[in-house]
Known about the structure:
This protein is an alpha/beta fold. It has helices spanning 10-21, 43-53, 68-71, 79-88, 122-131, 151-158, 198-205, 275-290, 310-321, and strands at residues 4-6, 26-28, 35-39, 62-64, 93-98, 113-117, 135-136, 164-166, 178-181, 189-192, 210-211, 236-239, 250-254, 266-268, 296-299.
Amino acid sequence: MKARIHPPTPANLRRLAAVLRRGGLVAIPTETVYGLAAHALDERACRAIFRAKGRPAHDPLIVHVLNLAHAEQLAEFNPAARKLARRFWPGPLTLVLPKKTCVPAIVTSGGGTVALRAPAHPLARRLLKLAGIPLAAPSANLFGYISPTSAAHVADGLGRRIKHVLDGGACAVGVESTVLDVTHPEKPRILRPGAITAATLEKFLGVAVRPVRRRNSGQAMPAPGMLERHYSPRTLLRIRHPGGRLPPDVAGIFLRQPAGAAGPNVYWLSDHGTLEEIARNLYRVLRRADQSRHREIWIEALPADAGGITAAINDRLKRAAARR
Length: 324
């Protein structure tokens, strides 16, 4: 049976909240990407996430909460973490902190820390409030594939593995949240870049914020999104400027609409070249190019000094293009 895509009516929200309380799975919209949600304190429900996605057990889950008060029931917060939550929640910032015993080991891949965030999408927040439980919710796609930014993307990938998708339209940010490890607040570390940048966090905290190296696929992870290969199309992806004479069997993805270039193998991420538009369209355009059945996809990376969300976009491209 194909997953049902539910319009966000009050009756549907109540129905889906009940599904989650009973241990079922529901794909939900957030401002970053769609997540596959389950009761975060129900070990059996969380195991169903791993089965549906084909996700390895060493890749932990992010737990979504309504606010700081709910998050403090799940993790040990220090003053820096509280300060960050008050400033950036709800929003695309995930905090990694020592977990409390109520959090099942499957959520953290057996580790002693848990990743937490309060999503900003109004439907995710209404569902959290109606369900009254924290929701573990990795991206709602088959493991390793391009993340979904619409309900249709979820149905394309998981439509025969889950029953329920809540339609919240296209995701506003388009790439996953920034993941910040603040277990040692004097040495915060970015485990995954996102829309909230290292420069923004450094200015707010008043201390250096360093990135952490990517991990190989066999290692246990302190947070999701750290695998060397991730977010990948099935078609071979190469990071290179697709300008000049693009071979007809290669799909070319430009940062902005190329002057004079046209054809069924030409794609672009932005009409105007803005970073926010590029991030919002990245996964949607990658999916379209992947479905076009070309031999390869060539995609243009952003200049490293472009600022803003550049680090997050280039991070996703590097992982998507990593060799199998």
